[in-house]
Amino acid sequence: MLSVNELALDIFEELFEYAEEFNAVPHELDNGARIVDCGVSTTGGYRAGRQFTEICMGGLGEVDITMGRIKDVPIPFIEVSTDFPAIACLGAQKAGWTVNVNKYFAMGSGPARALSLKPKHTYEVIEYEDEFDYAVIALESDHLPNAGVMEKIADACNVDVANTCAVVAPTASIVGSVQVAGRCVETAVYKLNELGFDTKKITAGIGHAPIAPVKKDGTKAMGSTNDATIYHGSIMLTMNAPEIKDYLDRIPSNTSRGYGKPFYDIFKEANFDFYQIDTSLFSPAEVVINELSEGAVYHVGAVNPEVTLKSFGFI
Amino acid sequence: MLSVNELALDIFEELFEYAEEFNAVPHELDNGARIVDCGVSTTGGYRAGRQFTEICMGGLGEVDITMGRIKDVPIPFIEVSTDFPAIACLGAQKAGWTVNVNKYFAMGSGPARALSLKPKHTYEVIEYEDEFDYAVIALESDHLPNAGVMEKIADACNVDVANTCAVVAPTASIVGSVQVAGRCVETAVYKLNELGFDTKKITAGIGHAPIAPVKKDGTKAMGSTNDATIYHGSIMLTMNAPEIKDYLDRIPSNTSRGYGKPFYDIFKEANFDFYQIDTSLFSPAEVVINELSEGAVYHVGAVNPEVTLKSFGFI
Amino acid sequence: MLSVNELALDIFEELFEYAEEFNAVPHELDNGARIVDCGVSTTGGYRAGRQFTEICMGGLGEVDITMGRIKDVPIPFIEVSTDFPAIACLGAQKAGWTVNVNKYFAMGSGPARALSLKPKHTYEVIEYEDEFDYAVIALESDHLPNAGVMEKIADACNVDVANTCAVVAPTASIVGSVQVAGRCVETAVYKLNELGFDTKKITAGIGHAPIAPVKKDGTKAMGSTNDATIYHGSIMLTMNAPEIKDYLDRIPSNTSRGYGKPFYDIFKEANFDFYQIDTSLFSPAEVVINELSEGAVYHVGAVNPEVTLKSFGFI
Questions:
Q1: Which of C40, C67, C71, C175 has the highest number of chain B CBs within 10 A, making it the mutation to test binding with B?
Q2: Dihedral angle at the C-alpha atoms of B201, B203, B206, B207, nearest 10 degrees?
Q3: Is C45 helix (H, G, I), strand (E, B) or coil?
Q4: Looking at the complex, does the CB of residue A208 fall below 8 Å from at least one CB of chain C?
Q5: Which of A286, A293, A297 sits opposite B213 (nearest CB)?
Q6: Which pLDDT score, from 0 to 100, does residue B254 have?
Q7: Pairing between strand A286-291 and A234-239?
Q8: Chain C within 8 Å of A71 (Cβ-Cβ)?
Q9: Closest chain A residue by Cα to residue B50
Q10: What residues in A contact B22, CB-CB < 8 Å?
Q11: Are B143 and B13 in contact (CB under 8 A)?
């Protein structure tokens, strides 16, 4: 079985060694833990964003950035594909590990989760666990973790702290915008998993989403980076699962209660109480399904250029 | 002179060694022949499709996959370019070798053809032959070749059977859809060759075509994967050949007799008798020519989104 | 500090060693200087164009080529991004060194300029100078430099002539078309520098421009390759500089006096006297700015498909 930490470690090592070329800053803590700052005290950039996203996907995703267009506005898009949708997206990329140690807070994602099994239920349904003596984690945070935080991560992953590797970037940074848009395929797989669909039956995923311009603060950035997928993510999934017909109308974002406004506005109306929000909103704008056993295709949802450009600040 | 088998061998070796990351399965037969299954007993995927296509082109093509759109439907496209159109497309990628040994059948393509010279006439007109002690072949088939089949291939290529390498994928598979779309530039070069044009005068080719969703069976897949280029392949060729003016109106698919219906429908109407079909249909939807000696440009043909989406099953 | 010559040397070495795969021709002169001909006595191609452009950007840019579309015409586009806009674009890619030795003439660009400091003012404003014992230069010329020309370059860069490396391509060649389109981001950074803006505040740049079909002669090629960016270059810059608001209306090409006709026509009307032309024309068609300190976005200018297709010869 492939090890997502082993594959991601190769990508991390390149980022660590040549950090300067990525506008990133490498740190080795006293306990041997290694961290690459991709946007906290540095500017990061598109290359670091690509590398960060590939690490999130445990080395089982291909990532590229090209210039696209939404109505008359040129916007870069991230192109993502994977031939291991359940493992790469749910087993690694999903932000399923809330790292909360003393005063440090980060949304944790990446292959280290497949060692710490956070959350355990995910690894049961996808029937995957990693075994490797290095743990590679991606942290969405405004701050770098200290030695104590890395020790907690090492403990949870059952590896030596000197074998822990973290990449870190705030939501409101170029790498933040890139890596959240890079979750466009994951969002489709995640939604199907939430609906009770067996995502092991998905054999390939490909998609793209616009890279949101960077906002001034984290909450606004959380809004626009999520809107990139909610209102303009286009995904294609290939699968062996004729039962997908029963899930189709619940996949795209436009079937959720809050649909139609930028996420920040919805969040504000809910007094910034996350638990008031209809989580079914976290889906791609549109999804194409290619079901192999019947040779069928389905297309649900649609991109929404107006709300996307409004969220991004262009209109 | 460049050896297309030498260049393709490097790509094959990577695919063989890291097959699991490509959702592919490596096999070494008792006689030493090596095979990578990219879709017969496994699912393959986009990465295997890219590698398969680059092997087909003898390492002289660049291949990428990005999300595109046909009308309101998001569809992945393959992007192909080559600076050696005659050698890469006719000398390697063209499916010019029907491998028919006992009960085994496959459409053979790839650089091994430049050793076995199948068909010989092709290599005379492009004035290229390879010399190398390994043979790399791509097989479009629902089955893997056995030792006897590989020995026949070795004999035809005049190499040791232990030095034969094959990649295999059915038409009705993701790799099948990718690698047939990957022939979009080849189709333009092939058509010009069929028209009697000297393709050695073409200095560069670039193009893209949609990757057809996978159909349930091989005949339907043959239809939709060919329609990808016939109805939605866009190619640009650069050449030193003012005489191209005399060929322009015969290049694109829309000048052929059968044009206007999905290929499967045409095939069915001909009672699935291939020899009843106007072969001039096998062309890209549109071609741009940049003729260097006169600094001229020409644009012939047009994409046909309606028939493409109909063929793919969306309308 | 990163060395643009060190990074570019790696790219040059690959191009030199595998020149045949790039349709390029390597030369080693008696004095040890190395030259790769990418279009003077050979055809070059897309791969050589990518490599040439990455050398121009001192290894600090990412370059890709994909098929795009202008109105109903398929046209390849170059995709360019950099996380070091001032250094990659002004410190290396800018054609700031007129190489004029005896009868040899070339527009010089690339990292060697960061050793010879041509022009010195540029390096003062971007606060960058390279230190490296190899000099890598890109020459836009119809002819290859001889030993004497390379010695002058070595002297200006203060390196041993055996450590000088040059890539050469005419404007009217595929590599010429690719590498000039590859300046689309540079043109935006250059324009801001000309307007007195501090380009060190730009943290990332991404953009694309169509690759002009190759014209018959250099002057016409100069026109169409520049029109690619002037009339159809779309750029996004990320920066920390709220003062950008004062520069916005002067950035895009459509605010210049000559705007609206193919460059060749403007040049001809000025009796081919370069000094009669409004240099503010040398800008991208449209620019999106993401200003980080205020979390703002701006979009100025627009692509002009009609003039672009007219310049390229399609209408």
A1: C67
A2: 0
A3: coil
A4: no
A5: A297
A6: 96
A7: parallel
A8: no
A9: A62
A10: 83
A11: no
Task: For domain A4-312, say whether CATH 3.40.50.700 is its number.
Answer: no
Average pLDDT rounded to a whole number, residues B211-228: 97
**Helix residue spans in chain A (DSSP H):** 4-17, 46-56, 85, 113-116, 120-126, 147-157, 174-181, 184-194, 218-232, 263-269, 305-312
Residue with tokens 């076995």: B116
- pLDDT tens per residue, range B274-286: 788 888 999 999 9
> How is residue B217 written in tokens?
């069976």
pLDDT value of residue B1: 85
| Tokens of residue C174, six digits | 């595929």
Closest Cα of chain A to C169: distance in Å?
26
Query: Closest Cα to residue C60, out of C114, C139, C141, C140?
Result: C114
Provide mean pLDDT across the span C215-238. 97
Closest CB from C23, C73, C215 relative to B288: C73
Dist. CA B187–CA C31, nearest whole Å: 47
Q: What is the dihedral of CA A307, B312, B179, A77, to 10 degrees?
A: 0
Classify each residue of A10-24 as buried b or exposed e, where b means 16 or more C-beta atoms within 10 Å of its C-beta. ebbeebbeebebbbb
| Residues shown for chain C | 315
Query: Average pLDDT of C189-193?
Result: 97
* pLDDT over threshold 90, residue C274: no
What is the distance of C-alpha A296 from the center of its chain? 28
Closest CA to A147 of A33, A243, A42, A306: A33
Going by C-alpha positions, the residue among A235, A135, A143 that lies closest to residue A185 is A235
Residues B39/B23, Cβ–Cβ less than 8 Å: no
- H runs (alpha helix) in B57-119: 85, 113-116
Question: Alpha-carbon distance B189 to B205, whole Å?
Answer: 9
CB C261 within 8 A of CB C253: no
Question: Where do the structural domains in chain B lie, given as residue ranges?
Answer: 4-312
**C256: which 2 tokens?**
């210049």
Reading the block at residue C207, the tokens are: 């953009």
C291 Cα to chain B: minimum distance (Å): 28
**Cα Rg for chain B, rounded, in angstroms?**
18
The CA-based dihedral angle spanning residues A295, A301, A303, A308, taken in that order and rounded to the nearest 10 degrees: -140
DSSP A138-188: EEE-SS---HHHHHHHHHHHTS-GGGEEEEEE-SSSHHHHHHHHTTHHHHH
Distance CA(B38)–CA(B26), nearest Å, equals: 9
Q: Confirm or reject contact between A17 and chain C (CB < 8 A).
A: no
Distances (CA, A) of C7 to A87, B209, C55, C96: 35, 35, 8, 20
From B47, B73, B314, residue closest to A83, measured CB to CB:
B47
The neighbour count for residue C304, using CB atoms within 10 Å, is: 21
What tokens were used for B300?
């012939």
> Residue A139: what residue type?
L
- Give the nearest partner residue to C74 out of B7, B203, B288, using CB atoms: B288
> C touches which chains (3+ CB pairs under 8 A)?
A, B
